[in-house]
Amino acid sequence: MRIMSRTQTTFAPPVMEARRWIAGKTFPADRPLLNVSQAAPVDPPPPPLQDAMARALREPDTHLYGPVLGLPALRAEVATQWSTAYGAEIAAETVGITSGCNQAFAASISALCSEGDEVILPTPWYFNHKMWLDMAGVRAVPLVCGPDMLPGVDDAAALITERTRAIAIVSPNNPTGTEYPATLLDGLYDLAARHGLKLIVDETYRDFDSRSGAPHTLFQREMWTQVLVQLYSFSKAYRLTGHRVGAMVAAPELLAEAEKFLDTVTICPSQLGQKAALWGMQKLQDWVSGERQEILARSDAIRAGFSPLHAQGWRLASAGAYFAWMEHPFDVPSDVLAKHLVNEAHILALPGTMFCPLGDPRGPKGLRIAFANIDAEGIKTLYERLQALAPPPAPA
Questions:
Q1: What kind of architecture, by CATH, is found in domain 64-282?
Q2: What is the pLDDT of residues 230-267, one digit of tens each?
Q3: Tell me: the pLDDT tens digits for 314-332?
Q4: What's the rounded Cα separation, in Å, for the pair 181 and 215?
């Protein structure tokens, strides 16, 4: 009998799976599809950034290999801006640039883990984190969040074994939108430090955090490089999703290990994407601030308009950054409901089952709503359609 590869035993990409639900379908002009399945912004970069990218295309080095860990100027800019934002001294040699934040996570796991090791992931989890751990032969250990969609430090402590190598979190969270309090991050950091683990903090959505000032003080810890690995994406803030630029902030020794992975997989990040990210960091701070205000307004609209759905038995568990996590009132699992939503309400959303392990009761009840590409009026339409939704037929 042929043994299946780890990739073969890993579930299919959820966003691609959801797209198959609408393949070949048409939707009327007066009731078009509302796509709340993906968080990536669909609009192009702002025109000034597009112009800067066009100029960069005429620079010869844009088309050549660059340093594996990224352009020195971009690494230095991240270090400078992060030092200001987090009130800490962050050196350029602790910053590595990657081909997107997913690659930063993969590189981190490759540098930290061997086959059979364990990484603790709060559930609902970000499915690409789970997918990479599966493909790497690393066991994802579910850390069940409470009703507030936050994990508990004591619960995490109970899951640590001799094979645990890291605790990996996302804040603001994907898929729930929850912003992890600084006190919780402090507790998880201290727990990781006591056990010789890494705390991986994916801050892809940090530019859309509703809190003013730094969301945590972990970079102010004297020995932060021994514990903290921060991940970041330029895709959301600057609309550079197709150019795949992310960052990994960690100990230089860990970056040296990650460099082996990065050199093997991509050799170097996209030169054009890196130049675009650098230009954006230097020139578009006011524009990004405006984008943040728009996303926060949408998050407010998600909360403000929810009361009629609450009266019908829905529950808004959390909302923030690009996401809301809702629990439905129907007697069917969320994967069945999600397909029903396409056919009956012309809504494409991802079911909670895509973000939870089998047996987790939160998965069948949950829906992730990504509102990066629907404004307040679109949110109103979404709610109207959900309110009018007929219950799906119960499974036979």
A1: 3-Layer(aba) Sandwich (3.40)
A2: 999 999 999 999 999 999 999 999 999 999 999 999 99
A3: 999 999 999 999 999 999 9
A4: 7
Q: Which of 318, 363, 317 is nearest to 178 (CA)?
A: 318
pTM confidence score: 0.95
Closest-CA residue to 198 (of 134, 119, 268): 119
The 10s digit of each residue's pLDDT in 35-62 is 999 888 888 999 999 999 999 999 999 9
Q: Which fold has domain 14-44+287-387?
A: Aspartate Aminotransferase, domain 1 (3.90.1150)
Give me 94's structure tokens: 């602790």
Q: List the structure tokens of 45.
A: 């970069």
Backbone angles phi and psi of 344, in degrees to 5: -100, -30
Q: Where are the domains of the chain?
A: 14-44+287-387, 64-282
- Scanning the chain, the segments in alpha helix (DSSP H) are 14-22, 47-57, 72-86, 101-112, 127-136, 153-159, 182-194, 235-238, 252-265, 271-283, 285-304, 307-311, 334-345, 362-365, 376-387
